[in-house]
Hints:
By secondary structure, the chain is α/β, with parallel strands linked by helices. The protein contains 13 helices and 17 strands. The strands form 3 sheets. Strands 11, 12, 13, 14, 15, 16 and 17 form a 7-stranded mixed sheet that branches. A 5-stranded parallel sheet has the order 2-1-3-4-5, with helices on both faces. A 5-stranded antiparallel sheet has the order 7-6-10-9-8. Residues 1-7 and 184-204 have low confidence and may be disordered.
Amino acid sequence: MSGNNGTESSRILIVEDNPDDLALIGAVLRRASFDVDIATTLADACSMLQAGRYDLLLSDLGLPDSSGLETYVGLAEADPSVPVVILSGDDDLDMAVEAVQLGAQDYLTKTVENYRELLVRVIRFAVERHTLAATVARHELMLRRLIDRSPDGMMVIDENRQCQLMNPAALQLVDDPAALFSSDDMLYAARDRFIRIDAGSVESGSSAIEATASRIEWDGGPAYLVILRDVTDLALAAEAARHDQQTLSHELRTPVASMLGYVEMLQDGDMGPLTISQLAALGVVERNGRRLLELLTEMLILSRVESGQASGQDIEDISVISLLEGIRTMIRPLAEDARLTLAHPDRIPDVFVRGSLDQLERLLLNLLTNAIKFTPGGGTVTLSVEQEEKEVVISVSDTGIGIHPEDLDHVFKRFYRAQTSYDNAIAGTGLGLALSKALVEAHGGSISVTSEVGRGSTFSVRFPTVGQPAQV
């Protein structure tokens, strides 16, 4: 049946034993386009609730076979899904409060002024509230089923590192999900990016778990939504591929180094004098041989970093001041040979980062030599550092040839070389920035780049700090 507005009418069951009130209420509701059924006792009302579908039940509390809140309880037990609005002749505030606490949608007294107009409004609001609540409950149930049946582990870790939610898949992946993020450093490093959590050596039969931790709000406070995924098979395959790559790189480096040794002997005249054209040809062989040796070396280091083998036992708290002063000393001669100005910060935050000194030096040297290689003579390469809360940001900027916008999303991929490299005939392996990214992420950090063609580039790396910072 349709109402005046063309929409389906709500079906109301009126439970009332007073004929005059019943006639008045029925007329008011029918005029408002409600479908109305009538019951005069609690027993009749319960039977009708069990036999039919109603959108709302409007009931007096005083019936021939029941009185007071017992009436509401009886109706609620007959069909808990139907919302109940109580219409009583008693203006009893305590009873009204208790009825609502028990679950009644509303409580309206017949003595209130204009109660007939108010009654229609109360019923419509009650039906809408109940419909909305039912929709929310249905969506919550669907979401709960999706979470429970997800093949990926899902959990929420609150600001106190307590696990507030976890699905069955998470329980299968880890014994104690909250323990994975028991420290500030772990969550801080994991924010909004992929991390890998190993329950031991994959080769020994343990699982490799990949996690994504994203900041969310939970129950009015900050928390992390963590997605866990078993990547043991992928880890084993990647480990096998890395092992093959390491073996190949290592085995190839030996003959290439030997070839370069013989080239050097020929260039030095140890095997007799050579003509100018022969020396020029040997120069080409040497350049390409050294390029191949550099490529093999970078592949070997990258493979070791990605597999965690490069860390060894040299993990320590490293002073950013000492790190940058050492880097500056190593890179200055290269900048001078390229006729470039090397700018450095006047003040360096006295903070520490956790990691391998050799790897961090390799990372920064890689970024600085890259900047020097892509900056014409007379330009400037700038090393800068800033402290941002629990992070230190080290940047390498240059006034070089820059990178096209379409290349920026790809520069950290293996063997990718930007178009400006080809345009300016600058040699390279295409592995330097991939290695830099791997080194940064191995230390729980992140790397980014901004650039403008013809004006230069800036590479910035962020690391979580340890210890108490101070400015010097």
